[in-house]
């Protein structure tokens, strides 16, 4: 049901449908918690994006990985200790010599035999295999492994890039070779366009499957729907960075929620998927969407997980996410922030191929300190622009009374409100708990409960407070903007998850932090129907 807020009045509630909450709320209980372990690589199945009937893409979905001869190696720091430290530079600032070296490394990688684990397509298939359901979680009845939507997202991709970088370096005989990072968050010094090194069509760094409307000088847009002139886009980008990286300062909100053996993320119709963190659900998916080719059914290559890392720009994109995790951890005002210390996080294990084409076993714990892994990032002066961004509100005072008069409904926590189908935008009045109950270490958090999406095409849900007339192209530069949940397409699959955003900082800036109720608006981009079970504001 699509409803245009603009035409039906400033505070119109939007289209929604409350379905009787008769459905039984099902949890898949995991009796003994345990970390995600290593799959049996001999039990591989075709990855499951294949329901796009008639799409030529279906033939590309066997991403089962080769099993090299010899024993699996345990990762050790010792082995890598004497190599040069690898400094990852911003893609828009490296020399032509460096670009030539980079091209050469990818040329050699692309030319390796197909059954070589270091071959470019096999490297890309590692992502497909662990993100599109080729392998099962050990100790379960066939629940698939999924390296997105949880606390494993950042660390798994860090290890993925770590070995990819070592392979490239080894192919050109340069152990100090480092990936570049795509500095799309830089809104001042030229990082926020597609980096020139990936553009020439005669290079190993080129990929034809990109959005041709987003070539330079088009500015990167850190949410999928963004309008305005360049300076407005820059302010929106800065606030998106501020909201995702600065105010979401606890591990669950930034890194993502717990993912343990027995949890099914891959195609969940019941609420047992953890949540992705702000950086994953927000900019990470937004930039996959922005780069992917709208001429392709699933916005390949970057726009869907099974093909994303067939574009060399993928590794530069993820390198910036990795940099921002490190920045979040060590470089924010207010002192260092904490990763998880839960053993089910620290002891999760993954397989990767090393530069000798052998299978290596790594764990989360060993990957948390990039110094120990032998690489690093330079300071980026333009980070200060988003760290110190101070979004101004566009509203004055609470709009709850006016919204109520216009018929905006009260929405409570599940199960009281059942299933709500969001139209193009949905607004509800939500109770805000009394602040005195808040402990100093706690964050005030909006929980979008039981958000359910089928993944036939890209979907985005943009959240605002105190802005009941917002829609998916409303500017994200003001203090009313809370955050965005983006989801790349994966046909045949669904996801049901709670989405959380820190909102205490927003409420203070609007000066409605003591109000007993606030108006929450969820604006939807995309053609898929999006359902939620309830809205809740709490401290955690
Ligand atoms: C590659 O780019 C050049 C311009 O730099 C253009 O003339 C040529 O048609 C392009 N080739 C392909 C295959 O796109
Ligand atoms: C690739 O094309 C560019 C122009 O777009 C040209 O300057 C360069 O020499 C070409 N390189 C090769 C290896 O053909
Ligand atoms: C961009 O738009 C804003 C708001 O409409 C306006 O104030 C500003 O002057 C515009 N800037 C440019 C460079 O056009
Ligand atoms: C549930 O939603 C309805 C609107 O359909 C609203 O009137 C009611 O107050 C809500 N109840 C709770 C407990 O949120
Ligand atoms: C979306 O909201 C903006 C204000 O945030 C308004 O200017 C615009 O007209 C709205 N668009 C639609 C389609 O309602
Ligand atoms: C996902 O789950 C739905 C509902 O249980 C099912 O119909 C569909 O076949 C599943 N898709 C895949 C790819 O397993
Ligand atoms: Cu990924």
UniProtKB/TrEMBL annotation:
Family affiliation: Belongs to the tyrosinase family.
Highest rank taxon of the organism: Eukaryota
Pfam families documented for this protein: PPO1_DWL, PPO1_KFDV, Tyrosinase
Keywords, alphabetical: Copper, Disulfide bond, Membrane, Metal-binding, Oxidoreductase, Thioether bond, Transmembrane, Transmembrane helix
SUPFAM superfamilies with a match to the protein in the record: Di-copper centre-containing domain
Transmembrane segments: 12-33
Keyword Membrane appears in the UniProt entry: yes
PANTHER family: SHKT DOMAIN-CONTAINING PROTEIN, TYROSINASE FAMILY MEMBER
Listed InterPro entries: Di-copper_centre_dom_sf, Polyphenol_oxidase_C, Polyphenol_oxidase_cen, Tyrosinase/Hemocyanin, Tyrosinase_Cu-bd
Domain Tyrosinase copper-binding: 148-165, 311-322
Molecular function in Gene Ontology: catechol oxidase activity; metal ion binding
Record PROSITE patterns: TYROSINASE_1, TYROSINASE_2
Keyword Secreted: no
Protein name per Swiss-Prot or TrEMBL: Tyrosinase copper-binding domain-containing protein
Cofactor: Cu(2+)
């Amino acid at each position: 049901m699509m409803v245009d807020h603009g035409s039906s009045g400033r505070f119109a509630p939007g289209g929604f449908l409350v379905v009787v909450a008769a459905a039984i709320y099902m949890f898949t209980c995991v009796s003994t918690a345990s970390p995600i372990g290593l799959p049996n690589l001999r039990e591989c199945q075709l990855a499951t994006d294949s329901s796009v009937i008639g799409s030529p893409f279906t033939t590309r979905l066997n991403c089962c990985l080769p099993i090299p001869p010899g024993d699996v190696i345990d990762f050790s720091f010792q082995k890598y200790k004497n190599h040069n430290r690898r400094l990852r530079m911003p893609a828009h600032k490296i020399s032509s010599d460096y670009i030539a070296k980079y091209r050469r490394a990818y040329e050699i990688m692309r030319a390796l035999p197909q059954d070589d684990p270091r071959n470019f397509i096999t490297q890309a298939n590692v992502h497909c295999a662990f993100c599109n359901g080729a392998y099962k979680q050990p100790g379960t009845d066939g629940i698939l492994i999924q390296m997105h939507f949880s606390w494993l997202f950042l660390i798994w991709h860090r290890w993925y890039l770590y070995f990819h970088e070592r392979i490239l370096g080894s192919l050109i005989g340069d152990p100090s070779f480092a990936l570049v990072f795509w500095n799309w968050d830089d809104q001042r010094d030229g990082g926020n366009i597609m980096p020139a090194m990936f553009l020439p069509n005669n290079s190993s760094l080129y990929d034809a499957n990109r959005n041709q409307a987003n070539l330079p000088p088009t500015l990167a847009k850190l949410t999928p729907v963004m309008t305005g002139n360049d300076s407005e886009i820059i302010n929106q980008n800065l606030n998106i960075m501020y909201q995702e990286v600065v105010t979401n300062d606890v591990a669950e909100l930034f890194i993502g929620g717990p993912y343990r053996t027995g949890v099914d993320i891959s195609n969940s119709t019941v609420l047992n998927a953890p949540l992705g963190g702000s950086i994953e659900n927000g900019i990470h998916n937004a930039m996959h969407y922005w780069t992917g080719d709208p001429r392709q059914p699933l916005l390949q290559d970057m726009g869907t997980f099974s093909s994303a890392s067939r574009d060399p720009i993928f590794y530069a994109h993820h390198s910036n996410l990795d940099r921002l995790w490190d920045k979040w951890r060590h470089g924010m005002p207010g002192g260092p922030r904490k990763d998880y210390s839960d053993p089910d996080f620290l002891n999760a294990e993954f397989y990767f191929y090393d530069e000798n084409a052998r299978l290596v076993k790594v764990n989360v714990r060993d990957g948390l300190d990039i110094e120990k892994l032998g690489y690093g990032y330079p300071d980026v002066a333009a980070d200060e622009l988003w760290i110190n961004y101070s979004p101004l509100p566009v509203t004055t005072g609470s709009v709850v009374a006016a919204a109520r008069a216009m018929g905006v409904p009260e929405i409570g926590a599940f199960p009281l409100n059942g299933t709500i189908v969001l139209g193009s935008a949905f607004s509800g009045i939500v109770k805000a708990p009394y602040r005195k109950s808040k402990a100093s270490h706690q964050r005030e958090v909006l929980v979008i409960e039981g958000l359910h999406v089928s993944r036939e095409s890209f979907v985005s849900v943009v959240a605002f407070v105190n802005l009941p007339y917002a829609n998916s192209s409303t500017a994200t530069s003001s203090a009313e903007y809370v955050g965005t949940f983006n989801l790349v397409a994966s046909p045949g699959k669904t996801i049901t998850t709670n989405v959380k955003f820190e909102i205490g900082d927003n409420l203070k800036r609007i000066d409605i932090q003591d109000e007993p109720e606030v108006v929450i608006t969820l604006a939807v981009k995309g053609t898929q129907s999006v359902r939620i079970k309830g809205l809740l504001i709490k401290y955690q």
